[in-house]
Amino acid sequence: MGIGLQFQSVKKLLLIFGIVIAAFALLSQLLQLPYESYIYSLISNVDGVGFEAETGLANRSNVEVDSVLGFQKSNEKRLNVNSTIEISTYSRQHGKMGNQSDQHLQLKSPAARPSDRDNVIEGSRNKTMSLLPFNDKGLMENQATGFNIDGASIMENKRRRPAPISYMNTLLLQNSISLVRSQWRSAREGELRKAKLQIESSPIIRNIPEVHASIFRNYSKFRRSYELMENVLKVYVYKEGEKPIFHQPYLRGIYASEGWFMKLMEKNKQFLVKDPKKAHLFYLPFSSLKLREALSNQNFTHQKELKNHLINYIGRISRKYHFWNRSRGSDHFFVACHDWASRLTRKSMETCVRVLCNSNIAGGFKIGKDVSLPVTYVRSAESPLKDLGGNPPSARPVLAFFAGGIHGYLRPILMQHWSGKEPDMKIFGPMPRDPGGKAKYRELMKSSKYCICARGYEVHTPRVVESIHYECVPVIISDNYVPPLFEVLDWASFSVFVLEKDVPDLRNILLSITEEKYREMQHRLKIVQQYFLWHKNPVKYDLFHMILHSIWYNRVFHVKSK
C-alpha cells in the first residue's frame, strides 16, 4: 500500500514536471515569432515609440510645415557640427549642390543586412512571398535602433518587422482582421446590404483603356461602388462640439487634409441629411490639429486630457442620440491627420471608421475598416492646385531625389548611404525655406524620375502626394505604411516599395527597373493624379469624393450579412 502511494506521488511529480516543461516550451515559442511582439507588449507596454516618448518627439511646433518637408532657414544649423559624416545640402548662396562644411550628421547605425531583391520591388502580383506573421492586433516587431542627432539620442523602442505591400494586399483581400460588425437591423442597414450585393455582382466594364484599368484593383467594382455612393449614401454631421477643436477647418500646411474634408463635408448638399434617422454614416467633425494645439493654448496639461476630451464628446452624443450605442460606433467616422490622432482615438473610438494620415498597421490601423488619409501639403488655401505637373520622362535627368529634415531613425541611414555619393542621386538634408529654396525643391521633384518618400517620425509623409502632383514616381520607404485609397488602387502599378533594410541597395534597385517599366508607371501616375486633388468646389473623382468613397466602401463591406 505504501509503495502504491509512493508510486502515485512520483506520478504526480512527473506530471507536474511535464506540465512545467511544456509550459516553458510553449513560452519559448511565444517569445519567438509570430507572437513575441504581443507578449513583449504585455510585459513592457512597448508599442513603437511609447506615448510619453512620442510626446517628446512630436512636441514640436505645428507651424513647422516647411521644416518637416525639408526647408531650412539659411542661417539655421540643425545638425551637429562635431560629427563625422557630411550631408549634401543645397546652398542658395552658391547656387549649386555641394557639401557644406557647417552641416554634418552623426550616426550610430547597425550594419546593413543583405538585401533580398525579390522582397523589395512589389510590382509583380504573382510573386510568391512568405507572409510575415502578425499577432491578433496586427502588430509586428523590429529591432531597436538608436541615432545621435543634434547631440540628442532618438531611440525607437522596438521597431517592428516590416509588412510588405503584398502582405497588406492579402489582409485586404482575405479580410483576416477581426472587425466589429453591426448587429442591429434597420432600413439603412438593408440599403447597405443591397449595395454590397450589387457591388459584388457588378458587370465587367470592357470599354476602358487598359492602362487606366491597371491602376485599380477591380475597376468595374470601383465604378459600381462609386455610382451607388452617389445615389445612396447619406451622412449626418453632429452639430455638437465647440470651436476651435470642432467645426473649424484649417486649410493650409501638412495637416490640411482633415481641414479640407471637414470644410467640404459640412457644406455638402448631396450627401448630408438633417434627419439622423436617414443617415448611413455619422461624421464626428473634430480637428486633430486643433486638439493638439489645445494642449498649449487651452487648459489641457497632459495628453490624457486630450483623450478624455474625446471620450466626453462621445458620451455627450451617445446620451443625446441613440445611434452610437446602437452600432457601438461602427457607422461613425472621423478624419484626422495629426501624428497623435491614432493613439488618442485607439480605445475610445476604436470601433469607428478611423480616417488617419498615420496609417501604421503596426500601430493599430486596421486594413479593411480604417481608411488611409493622404498627407496633402497645401501652400495656398485659395489655390490648392498650384504648381501641378512635371517634366516628361525624357527631361528627367535625376535618378532619385530627396530633401528633408533628418528626423526619425530611417532618414539618417538614407543620408549615410546616399548623400553626396552618386551624381544622379540627389539626396539632401533640409533646403532653404525662402522662396528660392522652395522653388528649387519643386524643380528637383519635377526633373527626377523617382522621388524618395522616406518616413520621418511616423510612417506617413507628404512626399507621396507631392510625387503624384509633380509626376515623379514615388519610392515609398516606410515599413507598415498603408498608402491612401488602398481599398481600390493598385499602388504597385505606379509606385515602388522598398523595405527600410534595403536602403543600402536603393540605387541598384532603381536601376534594375527598365526604362519601359518606368515609363508605364509614370504614365499611370499622371492618370492617378486626378484622384489626389482638392477642389474648392468638389468635382467627380476628386480627393474629397475618393476619401468619402473609401469610408463608404469599408462600411458597406462590413455590414453583417443575413
TrEMBL record:
Q: Where's it found, cell-wise?
A: Golgi apparatus membrane
Q: Exostosin GT47 domain spans which residues?
A: 230-511
Carries keyword Mitochondrion? no
Query: How does the record say this protein sits in the membrane?
Result: Single-pass type II membrane protein
Per UniProt, the ranges with Polar residues bias are 92-106
Q: Which domain of life is it from?
A: Eukaryota
Tell me the segments the record calls region Disordered: 92-125
Q: What GO annotations for molecular function exist for this entry?
A: glycosyltransferase activity
Q: Which GO terms describe its cellular component?
A: Golgi membrane
- Which key words tag this protein in UniProt? Glycosyltransferase, Golgi apparatus, Membrane, Signal-anchor, Transferase, Transmembrane, Transmembrane helix
Q: Where are the transmembrane segments?
A: 12-31
Family membership, please give it. Answer: Belongs to the glycosyltransferase 47 family.
Question: PANTHER family, from UniProt?
Answer: EXOSTOSIN HEPARAN SULFATE GLYCOSYLTRANSFERASE -RELATED, GLYCOSYLTRANSFERASE FAMILY EXOSTOSIN PROTEIN
Protein name in UniProt: Exostosin GT47 domain-containing protein
Q: Which organism is this entry from?
A: Capsicum baccatum
